[in-house]
Amino acid sequence: MNFKRKDLLGIQDLSKEEILFILETTKSFREVLDRPIKKVPTLRGRTVVNLFFEVSTRTRMSFELAEKRLSADVLNFSSANSSLVKGETLLDTAKNILAMKVDCFVLRHPVPGTPHLLAKKLPIPIINAGDGAHEHPTQALSDIYTIQERKKRIEGLKIAIIGDITHSRVARSNIWGLSKLGAQVRVCGPPTLIPPLMEEMGVEVFYLPEDALRGVDIVMMLRIQKERQNEGLLPSISEYIDFFSLTEDRLKLAREDVLVMHPGPVNRGVELPARIADGKRSVILDQVVNGVAVRMAVLYLLLAKR
Ligand code: CP
What we know:
Blueprint: H1 16-32, E1 47-52, H2 58-69, E2 73-78, H3 90-98, E3 104-109, H4 114-121, E4 126-131, H5 137-151, E5 158-162, H6 169-180, E6 184-188, E7 204-206, H7 209-212, E8 218-221, H8 237-244, H9 248-251, E9 259-261, H10 274-277, H11 284-303
Parallel strand pairs: 1-2, 1-3, 3-4, 5-6, 5-8, 6-7, 8-9
Helix pairs in contact: 1-11, 2-11, 5-6, 5-11
Bound molecules: phosphoric acid mono(formamide)ester.
Phosphoric acid mono(formamide)ester binds at residues 56-60, 130, 136, 139, 263-265.
């Protein structure tokens, strides 16, 4: 298969075949990460600019590492130290950086659709590194790769995503991707944090983890954004913990070989206790290492043949 896209903006508009092709390409880059010398010359002479308008640890470092592992030149843009503070628009900023002959933008922005705007206006590949509550495609690809690596399949797996579904770009991208590959996805959280029309995405909705966890192969916990309490969407964090935290007793309802996932950052003691986050069923750090390989694959597919 030829991957013919200019950009990676989301999982919603990818076909099943395209997702499988990215996952297949990831395999060879994952192998590079286990070598003593973790670098290939694939993108030598290309320049990638990381434009991050929101805080990030995993995605930002993972993209930078992926770019360096592929021998690309890397520029990291920090909005706080840029002429954006003098009133320059994002589009003008991007056009000025493009005039310096760079080859790709990786963009994280709090406003949904911002990567789509840059993709429409600029001739070089744009990679969405998270746009508001909309999509986080490379996180979902890392998660799906991790599940495939451990379970050897996606089709037919029962997967529960628990937490703040409404504000989660990770949930949205995973729902699109996992459903396209034939998994049965369930979401669970307080009614105030479950968006309408979930069933139309082919997803089952539960309001109690005791119901959602029954017989699942995978449980994916989502970060609770503490600011939601000020918006009146959560009565209190301690009540959330009582009802939704992943306890050992709740986890017993899942399959014995259940995998526990979390895209990070984890609020230990809120979404799940340290004992489970660091326990034998947790693949949280596998998600992180696979994230580098997925991002290498995406950069390779978008840039190497241009
Ligand atoms: N998973 C994720 O996007 O983490 P960061 O916000 O640290 O990049």
